[in-house]
Write a structure and sequence with these properties.
It is globular and about 40 Å long. The chain has 4 helices and 7 strands, in the order ββββαβαββαα. Strands 1, 2, 3, 4, 5, 6 and 7 form a 7-stranded mixed sheet that branches. The chain has a single domain, classed as Alpha-Beta Complex (Nucleoside Triphosphate Pyrophosphohydrolase), CATH 3.90.79. The chain is an alpha+beta fold. It comes from Bacillus timonensis. Keywords: Hydrolase. InterPro entries: NUDIX_hydrolase-like_dom_sf, NUDIX_hydrolase_CS, NUDIX_hydrolase_dom. One of its GO terms (molecular function) is hydrolase activity.
Length: 148
């Protein structure tokens, strides 16, 4: 069974937002750098609604504009230990390109899973991302990421 999730490549001008995730639920993990991502909940009206909810939960802000939804998803299988814990074998993440329209200094990590938010240039992002599948997705679509 697949867990449905959403993820955001958030930008403001020529900078992209990454989060430093240090927990999954209440369990501490080695820190990993990623885009804002989260599971779709039954109460979400759509994947777009889920994305805006996740952005608010993790940053405290509603100053986001969804620019586009990518057709391709990021898909991966969970390790056996995680499968048993969460009840899902795989995850399919619908990715969005999202513009942040607020003041960058106003964004703060609001979720205890997130230790830090960091703005990076498009050239810095691939080296900072922890997961290969996310890095490959970003590199593949980098030329089509129309940022101002």
């Amino acid at each position: 069974m697949s867990r449905q999730a959403v993820g955001a490549i958030v930008y403001k001008e020529d900078q992209f937002l990454l989060v430093h995730k240090v927990k999954v639920g209440s369990e501490k993990i080695p820190g990993e750098w990623d885009f804002i991502k989260g599971g779709i909940e039954e109460s979400d009206e759509s994947s777009r609604h889920a994305m805006l909810r996740e952005l608010k939960e993790e940053t405290g802000s509603t100053d986001f504009l969804i620019v586009k939804q990518f057709e391709e998803k990021i898909c991966f299988s969970f390790p056996q230990k995680i499968k048993l814990k969460i009840g899902f074998e795989r995850q399919e993440t619908t990715m969005f390109l999202v513009e942040y329209t607020g003041i960058t200094e106003n964004l703060l990590p609001m979720d205890e899973e997130i230790a830090e938010l960091q703005w990076l240039t498009k050239n810095e992002v691939p080296n900072k991302l922890t997961h290969d599948d996310t890095r490959s997705f970003f590199i593949k679509y980098l030329s089509s990421l129309s940022t101002k």
